[in-house]
Write a structure and sequence with these properties.
This is AAA+ ATPase domain-containing protein. Keywords: ATP-binding, Nucleotide-binding. GO terms for molecular function: ATP binding; ATP hydrolysis activity. The chain has 2 domains: about 220 residues, Rossmann fold; about 90 residues, Orthogonal Bundle (Helicase, Ruva Protein, domain 3). The protein is built from 13 helices and 9 strands. It is globular, with a radius of gyration of 24 Å. The two termini are about 40 Å apart.
Length: about 325
């Protein structure tokens, strides 16, 4: 087990848990020899270069995310571990099994879904997952209205996610109804799916930190099945400002110096009133509504300069209380 600044990762060799790391296709077909060895090496080098380029782009996207420093370090650790196990396999050394099911804990807007999508793409490039796509769902997508309905709904969602990631938001809601609730049936179906699809499915359960801890306590067998636990902290004021700047830059807008000061003041006010509201979703809502207010302001003018079209002024941040929710 490795402890990483509040993040817990276990590389278990647990009973009945097979490795998810896949032996590369070139290894399985080692007996097939290309008659032109130079051409074969050239093709392999080109594939390796292309793969590294794609992987480098994914890692660059991850590193470009504001904050999340401990999350990034953990993902780099997992990436390195998978690669080393593949090298050990090529050298016919014992390769440790790596179970990749995860628990994401944090408030809304802290980047959980964004990171899950990047992990799916990264694991596809590393040949851990065949497709690397992500299927997002919640309780309503898994729990049915009568006996047997829930198991079928859950199996259908699992089937869609095969080769990728099944991401269940607010997963703790599956255990809130007690023993007679159909949510327990969904949990049982998910546990079975984890056993039946050990090598072609990664399950990520996400939700508030304290609720997820309670959820794991309701079913002691779940904790050992999710060895990777990642905590997503709330963003600081400076990180929220950077997120706002980035969102505007992507859309080819920018704050004036005065508007940025106003934006900072507004964010601080929201955090003082609603300490758990200050995350990326709040910033996105504020930025998008400011852009619309700027559009209304400029629409009244017959023409607009490039600077005017790009600039967000303090008056564009004159948002109502409902805009800050």
């Amino acid at each position: 087990m490795s402890h990483l600044m509040g993040i817990r990762i276990t590389f278990p060799s647990e009973k009945n848990q097979a490795p998810i790391v896949q032996t590369p296709r070139t290894e399985r077909n080692a007996a097939i020899v290309d008659s032109s060895s130079e051409l074969s090496r050239g093709r392999k080098a080109a594939h390796h270069s292309s793969e590294n380029g794609t992987m480098a782009e994914i890692i660059a996207e991850l590193n470009a995310l504001v904050g999340l420093s401990t999350v990034k370090r953990l993902i780099h650790e997992i990436q390195a571990y998978i690669e080393i196990q593949k090298r050990r396999t090529r050298e016919k050394l014992v390769a440790e099994p790596l179970v990749l099911h995860m628990i994401f804990r944090g408030n809304p807007g802290t980047g959980k879904t964004t990171v899950a999508r990047l992990i799916g793409r990264l694991f596809k490039e590393m040949e851990v997952l065949q497709k690397g796509h992500i299927i997002e769902c919640e309780r309503a997508d898994l729990v049915g209205e009568y006996i047997g309905h829930t198991a079928q709904k859950t199996r259908d969602m699992v089937k869609k996610a095969l080769g990728g990631i099944l991401f269940i938001d607010e997963a703790y809601s599956l255990a809130r109804g007690g023993e007679k609730d159909f949510g327990k049936e969904a949990i049982d179906a998910l546990v079975k799916a984890m056993e039946d699809h050990k090598t072609d499915l990664i399950l990520i359960l996400a939700g508030y930190k304290h609720e997820m801890e309670w959820f794991l306590q309701t079913n002691p067998g779940l904790r050992s099945r999710f060895p990777i636990h990642i905590d997503f902290p709330d963003y600081s004021i400076e990180e929220l400002l950077s997120i706002g700047d980035s969102m505007l830059k992507t859309r080819q807008y920018q704050f004036t110096a005065e508007a940025r000061d106003v934006f900072r003041f507004m964010l601080q006010g929201v955090l003082n009133s609603h300490p758990y509201a200050g995350n990326a979703r709040l910033v996105r809502n504020m930025v998008e509504k400011a852009i619309r207010k700027q559009a209304v302001r400029l629409y009244a003018k017959p023409t607009s300069s490039r600077e005017e079209l790009m600039g967000i002024l303090p008056c564009d941040l004159n948002l109502d209380d409902d805009d800050l929710k």
